[in-house]
Amino acid sequence: MPYTRILKTWWPLAASWLLMGAELPALIAVVARLPDPAINLAAYGGVVFPLALIIEAPIIMLLAASTALSKDLPSYQLIRRFMMWAGGLLTGLHILVAFTPLYYFVVETVIGVPQEIVEPARIGLMIMTPWTWSIAYRRFNQGVLIRFGRSQTVGVGTVIRLGADLLVLAVGYAIGTIPGIVVATSAVAAGVMCEALYVGLVVRPVRQGPLKDAPAVTPPLTWQAFRKFYVPLATTSLLMLLANPIGSAAISRMPQALNSLAVWPVVTGLIFMLRSLGIAYNEVVVALLDEPHSSLSLQRFAWILSIINTLILFLVAATPLSILWFGRISGLPPELAEMARIGLLFALPLPALSVMQSWYQGMILFGRQTRGITESVGIYLLTSALILGAGVIIGGFTGLYIGLLGLVASVFTQTLWLWLRSQRVWGALQIRDSIIPALPTSQQSID
What we know:
The protein is mostly helical. Helix content is about 80%, strand content about 0%.
């Protein structure tokens, strides 16, 4: 498979994820310039975002599932029914947490965040109510678009989302008196709703054309087959996102808790922008491994992308670019900007690990051996719990640094396990490609 084919599939998804990753730095840059920045940043990064993510966890893998399984209209309709029910039920759970006394039990007793961020975070979580269903609807339909070669529209949707974000942020910044948590969560909610609306519109021609005309899958997708495929993925995302509130709870019990919680979304937001280039590779692998003689090209592309991502983060971390980003662009006070700069050095392996995770996980999804993904997340959580627990017990190290150390170690052990569990699929791909004759070079170059 020519690299141009991989690049053509990957870059719109990478651009989409990169723009999505730009959302958090944009939020931070505005909130940091509004009243009480440390409190509002900590409320968003330590409570609202982790809780919103964990509530939506069961539907976050709909993108991968839809990309892999929406091959004909009956399969699409089955997954769509699941999406509608799951999105509605999880939205109900979000309302239960945000609008009832259950919130105080979760935030004060379980997570144990500093008291000054409890009420601001609750307001933000209330505003985020549309988040879960919008994400479910968007990710499901994006999978269909990717499956039928419309990955460019995914990037356009992200531009629309970011545009809505920036509009709300600009209004909030211009007014200047609205609490930062209200501005940030209003921007996020508006962005995901606008993107969901756009994706719902552009998927219609695909649904009425290529999807409707696609040959029926044999054997047809059944609820039992879908459940066997998807439950491990849903469990995986739930376990993975549990690490966010667990991390907040641990950091809240270490030195410099408020500052660490305030800086955490700033550092991880920058890291996520680079990690997103690798995260986008997962759907590329799932979509293109169907084609003979694609595995070696996809593997080499993954290694090239890993090296490039690592070099970019090293350039930022090892030069004055980090102070420019954290101080001038993100708007952190000097002491918090310095804390963020040091924290970034802990995260250097993460961009490369994200690419390799997508490569190994994509192979596992292609082979429908999703249990291995769930196992890898269990290892991730165990590693994270051990390091964070040691940080709390020792109690002598800044929470931000222990949190980042735990993140890197956890992603490393998870990637190692994914590599191990993907080897059976890798072997099957090599046998397949050795049996099926390669196309002539002139045909291979046709995209």
